[in-house]
Write a structure and sequence with these properties.
Blueprint (H helix, E strand, L loop, with lengths): L1 E9 L14 E7 L2 E6 L2 E6 L5 E7 L7 H13 L10 H21 L10 E7 L2 E7 L3 E6 L2 E4 L6 H8 L35 E5 L5 E5 L1 H4 L4 H10 L3 H14 L6 E9 L23
Antiparallel strand pairs: 1-12, 2-3, 2-5, 3-4, 5-6, 6-7, 7-10, 8-9, 8-11, 11-12
């Protein structure tokens, strides 16, 4: 497959206009032997061989200490999943990888006391004619197909987990209650994250001209799905689309950090089998964290 990629990861309006002084968002792009993420606020590129294209957006928790440290740790550890050879069941490999990485990073952070940092993590791995994905938190992954935008991920709010468990939702329940490294469902720092195959990880058959949007809530908190859909229709270039989405969020009053990553898919081969996603077994992939 061939990909077009555009990404804007910005502090936003900055403190002089009521925004953040530091960018706690980060992103990951792994493709063609290059891994890219932010280091000290600037794009950093390193060599690493791998298969396909692996992309992610992470939003460090502003309410916790060192949110930028958490998002930076998340993209670095996720980059270790990018390696030659595709997993046979990539979404399940990603789900298990995130659970294992969360546990290991959580306990490393605990060596210094209570865990006070966390981050969202929304990731997509493009392999052959499929996109595997995994998600923690309230950053989002969307699929833009045939001029229609569909949200793939579910925000990890108290009401989301209440609905899954058959419990009563509440008017105050639409707040984030789970993040990578910090963990929890509103119970304090936790060494486990709740991830369910099909809800928090999955695999999608791709088509030519599909566009994938991965973004932080600095965008979605101010720009609705239909506005994002309209901007993606108007801006077919990935870099222009990412910039237009960020500009719209700022125009509508976002004071948060903002990340928009737009990925266009082309060259999908009809009839290509790609990775299999038929077994309930979690595939092992040994990685040193």
């Amino acid at each position: 497959m061939a990909y077009g990629v555009g990404v804007v990861c910005t502090v936003g309006v900055g403190p002089d206009a009521g925004g953040r002084a530091r960018n706690e968002d980060n992103y990951l792009l792994c493709s063609d032997g290059v891994v890219e993420f932010l280091e000290q606020g600037r794009p950093c590129r390193r060599h690493r061989e791998g298969t396909g294209l692996l992309a992610a957006v992470c939003d460090g928790m502003g309410g916790h200490d060192n949110g930028h440290v958490a998002s930076g740790a998340a993209v670095r550890v996720l980059a270790k999943l990018f390696a030659p050879g595709a997993p046979r069941k990539p979404s399940r490999a990603m789900l298990k990888f995130v659970q294992d990485a969360h546990r290991d990073l959580h306990w490393k952070a605990r060596d210094s006391g209570a865990v006070t940092m966390g981050t969202t993590l929304s990731a997509a791995w493009f392999l052959e004619n499929k996109m595997a994905w995994v998600h923690v938190g309230d950053s989002r992954l969307y699929l833009f197909r045939d001029d229609s935008l569909q949200q793939i991920t579910r925000d990890h709010t108290r009401n989301e987990f209440a609905t899954r468990d058959g419990r009563t939702t509440s008017p105050e329940g639409w707040h984030l209650c789970q993040s990578f490294i910090y963990g929890s469902r509103g119970l304090g720092d936790n060494s486990m994250v709740r991830l369910e195959a099909g809800l928090d990880a999955g695999c999608i058959d791709l088509r030519n001209d599909d566009v994938v949007l991965i973004c932080s809530d600095g965008l979605t908190g101010e720009v609705g799905d239909r506005q994002m859909e309209r901007l993606l229709k108007q801006n077919r270039d990935c870099s222009a689309a990412a910039q237009a989405l960020v500009d719209q969020a700022i125009k509508r009053g976002s004071t948060d950090n903002i990340t928009a990553m737009v990925i266009h898919v082309d060259g999908v081969r009809r009839g290509a089998s790609g990775p299999e996603e038929t077994s309930e077994d979690l595939e092992e992939r040994t990685v040193m964290f």
